Amino acid sequence: MDKDTLYYFIGIKGSGMSALALILHDQGLQVAGSDIDEYTFTQKPLAAAGIPMYSFDAANIKPGMTVIRGNAFNDDQVEVAAALALGDQINLVTYPDMVENLVKQFTSIGVAGAHGKTSTTGLLAHVLAGIAPTSYLIGDGTGKGVPDARFFIFEADEYRRHFQDYTPDYAIMTNIDFDHPDYYTGVDDVRSAFEDFGNHVKKGIFAWGDDEQLRKMQVDVPVYFYGTNPETDDFYAKDIKRSTTGSSFDVYYHDEFLGNFEVPLFGQHGVLNSLAVIAVAYFEKIDGDLVRKELLSFKGVKRRFTEKQVGPVTIIDDYAHHPSEITATLDAARQKYPGRELVAVFQPHTFSRTIAYQDDFAKSLELADKVYLTEIFTSAREQAGDISSKDLGAKISKFGGIVSPTDVAPLLDHEDGVFIFMGAGDLQNTEFAFEKILANTQTNLQ
In this structure, are residues 149 and 139 in contact, taking their beta carbons and an 8 Å threshold? Predict the structure, then answer.
């Protein structure tokens, strides 16, 4: 890394970009960047670190900079165009290029998967950072750079095959699913992308054993499966006990008993993610008692089952935007809040995903006691489509209607419910509007 250059991030508020910017800042490098003017949850730690953030403007790009180009930006974006015009006067690199630069410096573990990669990356980073010097890049915008780190933990995103050239020592693969229908042609195409990534892994892959696509994967590196089946999985959990405070389970590597572990996590995915972390630690010869202690103190990652209480009402905020993720989130909510009414508030994310998965969305949302939808969140690539939230709602027997930041009144009918707000767009605007009305209602009752 060059301490004489300014590392300038085009799209610095992106979840991966903001985390990477924080890592470079922690390493003592000069960092700045640009993005949209609207507030995003990722900018708070950037501001706290004193990292300058600007509006997009060609004038921001100056000779001598190292410009990191966010994955979302084409050549005609105003600052990318300015950087390209300067040619050799600047160093223009991509986000994956910069991540790979870090991958090569440490014992690195990349976490990939259509679902669960952020939660697993966060859990792995928490555990290893409590035991040894560890740098990490998490997809919720969290990043930390540690001098002389032993480990580098990072989230490896499959979208547009951005992860294909990473060369980590290990990889965790949580699952393969046909997400991103705007890019991939089908699940076979997704699996081929994971195989490309897997063939760059140096020492070993830890993969969820119940995923048939991961089982089909053809790679030239050892694959160790984790799950709950002693017959087919290398690392497996037995005697799983789920309660309102978390889960406990016994862990084995083949016939070797590794001990009993407890985690303050909910849902089956909490156990599986923990197994993957335990497997990595085992291969790195880390004391199981240290792993056990760190697992117990994990507090979660941003926008993954994040909870708050407003009077008698419990609100859970989650990034879930795919049917599998919705199922996992509602499963976790049932475990933690048995006997309470679960009210799902879901924002469909992009028209193409909603069309591709409409029946699966309806099936997964039926796991709640009542379902409300917001209008479909559009993207820069996709402003319209042949489906609406009303169309999706018609497929859900428990559908209660459409809500928005200016109309959350229907939600007030559920006085002591557990509200699970799920989506990857701007759903938090509706959530915050609901919280404000609840707070005002509580004040008036006092």
Answer: no
Cβ–Cβ contacts within 10 Å for residue 267, how many?
A: 21
pLDDT band at 126 (very low <50, low <70, confident <90, very high): very high
Return the ∠ at Cα 296 (arms to 294 and 302), rounded to 5°. 85
- Give the rounded distance of the alpha carbon of 291 from its chain centre: 22
Q: How far apart are the first and last CA of the chain?
A: 57
CA–CA separation, 444 and 276 (whole Å): 48
Q: Are the C-beta atoms of 169 and 109 separated by less than 8 Å?
A: yes
Q: Give the pLDDT band of residue 152 (cuts 50, 70, 90).
A: very high
Distance (Å, whole) CA 432 – CA 405: 8
Which amino acid, one-letter code, is at 267? Answer: G
Q: What is the pLDDT of residues 312-353, one digit of tens each?
A: 899 999 888 889 889 989 999 999 999 899 999 999 988 988
Positive or negative CA dihedral for 178, 183, 184, 190?
A: negative
Put the strands of the sheet holding 107-112 in their side by side order. 143-144, 134-137, 151-155, 107-112, 170-173, 204-208, 223-227, 235-243, 246-253, 256-263
